[in-house]
Amino acid sequence: MIKKLVQHGNSAALILDKPILELLNVTMDTPLEITTDGRSIVISPARSNSESEFSASLDKINRRFSRTLQRLGE
Predict the structure, then answer these.
(1) Is 41 left (phi over 0), alpha (psi -120 to 50) or beta?
(2) What is the pLDDT of residues 27-54, one digit of tens each?
């Protein structure tokens, strides 16, 4: 799908079609995270603080107990 930016005041806007929003379960109230690699733009629903905290805790546990967890998995 090819889209064009539209003028919105002094800014440019990208209009997302309803089927795309429904597919991603995004509403007008959903915070979006915008990232780029310098060539592409990635727009995704922002992770909540609880998800970020969970990921940080999981990383900490994996660093601390990786050997034990590997042995338990054998």
Answers:
(1) beta
(2) 999 999 899 999 999 998 887 767 777 8
Structure tokens at 22: 């429904």
Closest-CA residue to 30 (of 19, 43, 40, 11): 43
User: Is the Cβ–Cβ distance between 34 and 22 less than 8 Å?
Assistant: no
% the chain with pLDDT above 70: 97
> Alpha helix (H) ranges present in 1-74?
18-23, 49-72
Annotated domain spans of the chain = 6-72
* Sign of CA pseudo-dihedral 53, 57, 60, 66: negative
For residue 49, CA distances in Å to 14, 54, 55, 65 come to 27, 8, 10, 24
Give the architecture (CATH level 2) of 6-72. Ribbon (2.10)
Q: Which residue has the tokens 């969970």?
A: 54
